[in-house]
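Now for a chain:

_____
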Amino acid sequence: MATAKLFAATGDFKNDIQLPAMFDEEVNKVCMYLHIKAILNNNRQGTAQSKNRSSVSGGTTKPWKQKGTGRARSGQNTSAVWVRGNKAHGPKSHDYFEKVNKKVKKAAFHSALAVKASEGKVNVFEALSFAAPKTKDLLAVLAKSGIEQRNVLFVVSEKDQNLYLSSNNIPWVRCARVEDVNTYDIVRANNVVISQAALSELEGGR
């Protein structure tokens, strides 16, 4: 069984606990790849577009006759070889959306959790909440727990405004609810910090 360190809300280490069965599932790299690729593609705007021949300023009249001028042949001044002409083979706006099946998403998410658990990068806190939004209080808790202060992902059961505001000024800390976190969030995080309430939600059906 995969295990993780359990910390009190103050950052004091308590003991090692066993993680749910999903943290022990076989890692499926193919599903992880497909899901992460879809996440990144679905985040693309796809609005890049260059002007084609009909969009640039100019006309379709032949600039000069075909032969006898000593110059190269030309059909219209909107050609890509002309100054202020169109862009040849430029980007066109389109939708990058990719659909991923629910079973693939689930297998990818569980695989990402299993990878982090095997690396010892999963930590559980009894609670992740603060009475007031204080960045220094959050930093003190992280320093006391000994968690590496680099790319930390907090996974909570519900949005805590004080926790969000406390972490907002820390560039290497991100917060996500259980229903919002995805495979890419888990993979890119160096350390995953989960509250016990969020861990129960994950075990219950994520």
